[in-house]
Amino acid sequence: MQSAHAFKRLVRNLSLTALTTAATLSVTMHSAHAQAAWPNKPIRVVVPFAPGSFTDTAARTVGAELSAQLGQTVIVENKGGAGSTLGTDIVAKAPADGYTFLVTDNSFAVSAALYKKLPYNPKEIIQVSLLADGPAVLVARPTLDTKTLKETIDFARANPGKLNFGSGGQGSSAHLAMEAFLMQNKAQLVHIPFKGIAAAMVDVAAGRVDIAIGSAGSTSAYIKDNRLLGLAVSGDARHPAMPNVPTFAEAGFPGYKMMYWFGMMAPAGTPPAIIERMQKEIAKAVATPKVVSVFTGAGVRPISTTSAVFTKMVQGEVTLWSEVIARANITAE
Fold this sequence. Notes:
signal, 2 domains, 46% helix, D-Maltodextrin-Binding Protein, domain 2, Tripartite tricarboxylate transporter substrate binding protein, globular, alpha/beta
């Protein structure tokens, strides 16, 4: 009798084990199928700036290619304000399901270093891939007495505060880029902030401001028309849009490595498989003739990276800008 009961218990336990295993396999297979099916609805890409910036252009140009590749609409939304932190916060608080992404630039690292209190923790955002990078270009008004970068820095050292520089605003990437260069070379210039780098370049070209630093996109047309004097360009080689402008190394300042970058990020917790898939799709997108044409026309280089490489780069920039901000005693407006 006991043997019969024991046999029944054994059969019941085996049946329960089989049911549990089947249920687990069902959930696992359903999860794998759901992940493999990504994306199965439109993808939202937030740009934390107003329309018209190159960051916006990059998001829309790459977004169009991703839409074709993934078979789903990529919707770009501009959420500018608060130095890019408003739009970034929206992404930080979004569901980490692979349907919300951020396309931003150096401002992400600048904000992390500059603001003592942000509406989000920078760790709530993870890096997916770079989309593009481009050099920083140091320019001067054509009427400046000094005509090379070495002459200009020598004059600035001998005459502290005599020269000034314009930027896109207090704590902007252009402001920090110039402060970093001045610190490296022990020179002092008076900072004149503008509401955007475009406004600063207008005043440098008009002779009201001595020098400024900006992207190739904001400077190359002025240099070509001789309305700005190109002193140096960052990167390993001269820029094709301004072949007569020496690199910082050629100008005698090899230590200056500042580059402008543009990249895609996502809410922390987004499944690694989706991050990896998106990175691979970005690599395809930035190699298409359309993206290459738009990006090179704006003076930047199409590029893609792994999440790990992009993350390490951003962490390095946060450390650098934190040091520059502390040493120059820069505060947010």
